[in-house]
Amino acid sequence: MPASRRKLSVFAWEPFLLGIVLLAALAASMTVRLPVAGTIVGVVAVIVALPAIVQLVRLGISRGGDRNTPSGLARLDGFALYDVPVDGVVMLDETNRRQDSIDLALGWTDPALMVVLWPGATRWLGRELRVEAYFVGGPKPARAGFLPRGTDASIGEALEALRDEGVLVTVPARVFGAGKLPDPSRPFTRLARPLTVEVGRPADGAIGAIRP
């Protein structure tokens, strides 16, 4: 039975929190001229909106600057990297949204590309929790794309548990340009877009066998 998709709690989802604030403001503005009801609605609106505003501010602060967040990797400081055995390969999803980032990783000139797996990532304004792959080896992690849903759903929770222990999993990666691999005889030739990324699929039990 395939693993079910995991989603971010609505109480940590910015569109939901922003919607609460806007609805509370709208309700207060529509009743502000009513002497009694307007006061009551205004007080209720403040009570309802204040926790949402506080949570939005907290999320904004946590995601500002060069900080890691549950949904995004900004730096590797403090993490131990474990290279796990793989039993196949998969193509990353949404590499079309990561073309500049993939190009950046290719500029590091290391032919043995490697990606680190970051669990609990989300698309912009999305709720679905995915495992995102980041190229490492340069000055900062570079986004490569998401693991296919069937793969990330089966290992996402195990990866999150390891991350909480300060451990990140790495797998090998290859970049294709317009469906072709780089030509070893022409090392300085740039790959043509669209760029796609193939990564190793962690072998069954490989992640669970890691002991921090």
Detailed description of the structure:
The protein is an alpha+beta fold and 212 residues long. It folds into two domains: 10-62; 80-202, Alpha-Beta Plaits (2-Layer Sandwich), CATH 3.30.70. The chain has four helices and seven strands. Strands 1, 2, 3, 4, 5, 6 and 7 form a seven-stranded mixed β-sheet that branches. Helix 1 runs antiparallel to helix 2 (37-62).
Instruction: Specify the CATH architecture of the largest domain.
Output: 2-Layer Sandwich
Strand content: 15-25%
Order of helices and strands: HHEEHEEEHEE
The CATH class label of the largest domain is Alpha Beta
Mean pLDDT: 84
**What's the total number of strands?**
7
> How many strands, what sense, and barrel or not for the largest sheet?
7 strands, mixed
What is the end-to-end distance? Answer: 29 Å
Count of the domains: 2
Rounded radius of gyration (Å): 22 Å
